[in-house]
Predict the 3D structure of the following.
Amino acid sequence: MGYAKSIRNKLSKKSGKPELLLTSLLESLSSYMSASDKTFIKKAYEYGASAHQNQIRMSGEPYICHPLSVAQILASMRMDRQTISAALLHDVVEDTDITLKDIETIFDPEVASLVDSVSKIDQIKFGDKAEAQAETFRKMILAMVKDIRVILIKLSDRLHNMRTLEHLPDKKRKIKAKETLDIYAPIANRLGINKVKNELEDLCIRYLYPYRYKVIDKAIRKSKGGQKKFVKNISSKISIAMEDEKIDGDVIGREKELFSIYSKMKNKKRYLDEVVDVFGFRIVVSDVNDCYKLLGIVHNLYKPMPGRFKDYIAIPRINGYQSLHTTLFGPKGLPIEIQIRTKDMDRVAESGVAAHWKYKTKEKEASNSMTQTSEWLKKVGELQEDMSSAEFLENVKIDLFPDKIYVFTPQGDIIPLRRGSTVIDFAYAVHTDVGNRCIEAEINRELSPLKTILQNGQTVSVITKRGAKPNPDWINFAVTAKARSSIQHYLKNMRKSDAYEMGKKLLNSALDEIGTTLRKIGKKRQNEVLDQLGVKNLKMLYEQIGIGDRLAPLTARFLAQDFQKQTTSKRASLEIQGTEGMVMKYGVCCHPIPGDDVMGYMSSGRGVVIHRNNCRNLKTFRKHPTKWLSVSWTDRIDREFSSQIHVETDNKTGVLAEVASTIADSDSNIESVIVSGHEVHSELIFTLSVRDRIHLANIIRNIRKMRSVHRISREKL
């Protein structure tokens, strides 16, 4: 009774809110809509308000306040009457007795279709929550392929839900925030809707890491006070220089996004004051020529930082974003980040695809952002074929976190790819048929293997051959969703006879590389290996290699080794499919431990050496891409591994003993320590015994709490 009374009290106080929200919405629509369109939307509001009449939200507000708020977000993007109406009705089918047929009859099929696409899939029964989430996501993405307005409604719906997340229990808040950070914020980023993306990310940090959020938010608020005069002086200086050169434009002091500060601290290992004390400015001018002219002006005013200039006008980002970015040494050496763009570019930077979507624009030629988005949506539509919902979700998520590089075709066309992409990823990005039939490639006119990792700015020419087929081994080094799904699709449809022939060819080739054959190995050794691998016969082994279940190079080496010697080896091994009995060593250059992303490198005389994916020595190994192997850790490893940490401390007596004591208290042994002293600070390099990344993270966390410690990292400080 007490809860019901509390809700009634809240509701009575907010009973007039829907009318206020409706008035605000209609005012926003008046700036770009006709009277008849507004009448249509008001009818949708009245219908939705009637349907939700007896429903209230956890906040105590009438339920219709939520659809009104979603519609208001879409109105700020200047969406059409069907989109706004669908936003007002997007929950009626799910939460009331109204059907899609009712909406189609009273409004139109377009509104009904949008409402259907946005609705959740509650009527379908799933095995678990993860499967339900994946299938809901699949429906949303595929609906988006048909109509981009679907995702704009869904993003606006999620944004308002995140704004009111404080009314949910803590556990549900964290689940929603994690889902938003994993799926919705990256989609907003991919579509270039920066306003929505930035707010979603900031809200996610607020609920996922409340303490970190408070600390960073407090630092931002504090820095604003001291920065006002500084920002005003710089803005004035740039404005005067623009007037002297007769360039019209606006200089705007740019607010820092909280999530951006958090990410820089986390990824670049920066202190809070190093990130907060960076001044940002956006300069919006009339045309592209003024952008480049203004770049020279600001470089004359303040010295530019080397290597910090990016031209996203000539080469736009994957979501259509265009701007010039430069970082300058400002007064007192403080960094100044400047973005220079035109008014149209600024509009796209804020609203992304919503600024040029096909239902609104009257231009015959599609905008760059719309073209880029259409191409991506087409690829997403192709991905879902022959995939489970979970596989589809994971593959799309790969493309939603685009740490991009840009490479060129021989004709000068730009192909954007994920960082770490290989030639095979490039081939499939050009066309699926090119990927399926490629045999080798030229990078900057030099012949290169298909495994070669591509670098920014390279020109790649793929060489194809009629009758050529995908190699199952490609799946081990393809990184883009398009390439991996295309190869998987081929492997699933490959006949057993094809797999047999392919596997036989791959194994014989691998044996030939190490100077032996199956005949030399002999039947006895072959039978021993087949028994150890749990394979009935040689034909089945060929088929497993042919469809990619086993790696031919490792199977060949296993066959060629003396099995008894290998089983008595004390060297630790990873669980790699098809590598039973192989010698494994761990790179002393990067000290990989369970939980790290790793790769294997086949070294002559040393077996397979395991390295972390970010190991600096991988640059050397790129010269021999055919020796790379995909590897993975077992779920349970009952042993310890060597790992290294670099600690920067005060240079004072007893600090080494303090750190060593903390390490011991964290259940770890010190294998070695190197001390290098400076006038103020000391650097301590510890080699420790740890179980996995979690154990190491706990050690680092405990050391970081010490007052005498300034910085700590696995990498060199």
Q: What stands out?
A: DSSP finds 31 helices and 19 strands in the chain.
